[in-house]
Amino acid sequence: MRNIIYIGDLRRGRTSWHRMLALKNLGHRIIPIDQASDINNLFERVLRSFRQRVGYPLDPNNVNILLLKSILDFSPDLIWLDKPMNIKRSTLVNIKEIDSNLKIVAYSPDDMLNPQNQSKYHTKILPLLDAYYTTKSFGVNELKNMGCKNVFFIENGYCTEIHRPVIPSFNSIRNKVGFIGGYEYERYQNILFLANNGINVNIQGSFWNKVGSENLIKIKNGDLIDLDYSAMISLTDINLCFLRKANRDLQTSRSIEIPACGGFMLAERSDEHLQLFKDGIEAVFFSDKQEMLDKTKYYLNHPEQRLKIAMAGRDRCKSSGYSNESRMSNALKLLDSI
Description:
Layout: E1 3-8, H1 15-25, E2 29-34, H2 42-54, H3 63-74, E3 78-82, H4 89-98, E4 103-108, H5 120-125, E5 131-134, H6 139-145, E6 151-153, E7 175-180, H7 185-196, E8 201-205, E9 217-221, H8 226-234, E10 236-241, H9 253-260, E11 265-268, H10 271-276, E12 284-286, H11 289-300, H12 303-319, H13 324-336
Parallel strand pairs: 1-2, 1-3, 3-4, 4-5, 5-6, 7-8, 7-10, 8-9, 10-11, 11-12
């Protein structure tokens, strides 16, 4: 068992929270430090936006101070930084002076060369990290070139407590086709193509107020978390999964979460998707709008095949070790190997 100081966005339902929960389930003692904060004051919102643009995001929760205090109070074995955008180089230098043997690792589910996922604080701490875990296979060499000594590719995982089939209530309304996730122009164009060809699509996510509900597209703005998220997947005949182009995605968290929930997944084709799931057997993939439309129509009319594929996808998640517990266990083994 390890004593782990875990810093991340620890709002319930966030993937960072899921990873922390997995480490707890593995038997490790967790000292959590939440770097998420809600700023309602207009001046503070403007200041936060400005600081993010110039590369020095705010630290409203005083995470750097709390981290140093926790080192002295808890004598940890490991510091886990989940997407550390506001951790200062001086903080890590001080930690190494306190305990030169203490391991410090970072993890990010995002493309760290995307300017939206970057900060000057983050760039400066890279050479001080003992290991960096990325869900982007192409990110391994990129992060090494930025100064990281040890970079490991860890694929996305699912939360065993949340991402599971949910039995809907008797008055629940099923969706034919659905998408859970934030607005992105290309995603909308794909969904609009389905709608223009007579397919009703239900969307749940953030920033969709840019387009509004129209033409067989029903939109609910706002994030779904925990079992509400799993329930929507269970209530949807075909769950769309798009890759975020800004992050150069080859897989996403939903690539694993949808099948883990027992949902039928229709996703963009990529080499990594094809390695994770057998096409037409454990999930279904498409390369363009027309193939997406053709497969949507086909599987809406073949519910038995759809159910068989959904069940096989969930079985693959369990048998191939796609859970966060398995991913985090592997991450710690990789750390021990260096």
